[in-house]
Specification:
By secondary structure, the chain is an alpha/beta fold. The protein contains 13 helices and 13 strands. The protein folds into 2 domains: 164 residues, Glycogen Phosphorylase B (Rossmann fold, 3-Layer(aba) Sandwich), CATH 3.40.50; 158 residues, Glycogen Phosphorylase B (Rossmann fold). The longest helix is centred in the last third of the chain and has 19 residues.
């Protein structure tokens, strides 16, 4: 094996379909393409395993149960002995709890403000935003052990339109159907759109515990015939290619992968001015920001984009420029490879 190849394992204990899980798939595949030896270990998930195999990886599926699940830790220890990685990255709390210390550097990857007790065995911690890194350091962790390694999006520019996308104008949102995503605020905003935009549809691509509540709210607001919930979409490129505006209305969003994806696809963005989206979006340059929980302001911002093709094009171009400078695969994968190597030798 060439001396510049780093043997690594990436551990994902979550079963959900969401932005972090999707980025796990993208990053492990990209690191392998770049020449590193990558062993992905995941919670049992046939579709995810199939996607990883299609990317040329050999995923290992384990149970990753609750606190009493000792079998997963034993099996994981055996997998890691066989793989002999120099670096192991535990993605989020469940993976960090199950990953034993061993003859490797253990790094915990955080995409949110998690309980750091779950990462007690980790030698280093990785945050995907600078705000998360600052928060970790503020909890008393040595800055030398905390690193900012960001997310990337594939290049979606020029992707073909999703066959199932609505034929007319539509607003796109995507993510787990959870209260944190504030899709209820977006449904209320759709009901507030002016008459000239009452034909516009809303597509919320995702799945989760709030589906029934969101469907009921759409009926109560009189927009059920304009709200489409197609379920989780592992490949958002075609939906982004077809939409008129991407909306991220979240109450809590440490990063906002879908915003980066919209930048990549050269689509205008409207987002709540919180956490990650406020760091990603430059107002009036790469998107529009509105106060969280404000369906009236959200409706007004969506209307601005639908009303003004020149504004939509300017925002889309600004987002694309931000993607090329900071969120494309090549520069981010380089940061990850360099960062993991520094941790391994440090």
């Amino acid at each position: 094996m060439p001396v510049d190849v780093l043997r690594m394992a990436h551990i994902l204990g979550a079963a959900a379909d969401g932005g972090a899980e999707l980025f796990f798939e993208r990053l492990t595949a990209a690191l392998a393409r770049a020449g590193d030896a990558v062993t992905p270990v995941i919670r049992r998930h046939p579709a995810r395993a199939a996607r990883l195999r299609a990317a040329g990886l050999a995923p290992v599926e384990l149970g990753f149960g609750g606190l009493l699940d000792r079998l997963t830790r034993l099996r994981l220890a055996g997998v890691l002995r066989a793989a002999a990685p120099a670096v192991v990255v535990a993605w989020m709390s469940r993976a960090a709890r199950h990953t034993p210390a061993g003859d490797y550097l253990l790094a915990g990857r955080l995409g949110g403000y998690y309980d750091l007790r779950n990462f007690a065995r980790c030698d280093h911690l990785i945050g995907n935003t600078r705000a998360i890194v600052d928060w970790i350091v503020g909890q008393g962790v040595s800055p030398a052990r905390v690193h900012h390694l960001p997310n990337f999006s594939p290049d979606f520019r020029g992707a073909p339109r999703a066959p199932a996308a609505p034929a007319g104008p539509f607003v796109l949102a995507a993510g787990r159907l959870h209260r944190n995503k504030a899709f209820d605020v977006l449904i209320r905003a759709m009901a507030r759109l002016p008459r000239e935009h009452q034909s516009a549809r809303l597509v919320i691509a995702g799945e989760g515990p709030e589906r029934a509540a969101l469907e009921q709210l759409a009926r109560q607001c009189g927009v059920a015939d304009r709200v489409v919930l197609p379920g989780w979409q592992a490949d958002t490129a075609g939906w982004l290619a077809a939409c008129d505006v991407l909306v991220c209305p979240s109450r809590h969003e440490p990063l906002g992968n879908i915003v980066i994806e919209a930048f990549s696809a050269t689509r205008p963005v409207v987002a709540a001015a919180i956490d990650g989206p406020a760091m990603l979006v430059t107002p009036e340059v790469s998107g529009l920001l509105v106060p969280a929980e404000d369906d009236a302001a959200l409706a007004a911002a969506i209307s601005r984009v639908l009303d003004d093709p020149a504004l939509a094009a300017r925002l889309a171009a600004g987002g694309r420029a931000a993607f090329e400078a900071r969120h494309a695969e090549a520069p981010v994968v380089t940061l990850w490879r360099d960062g993991l190597r520094r941790m391994a030798v440090g």
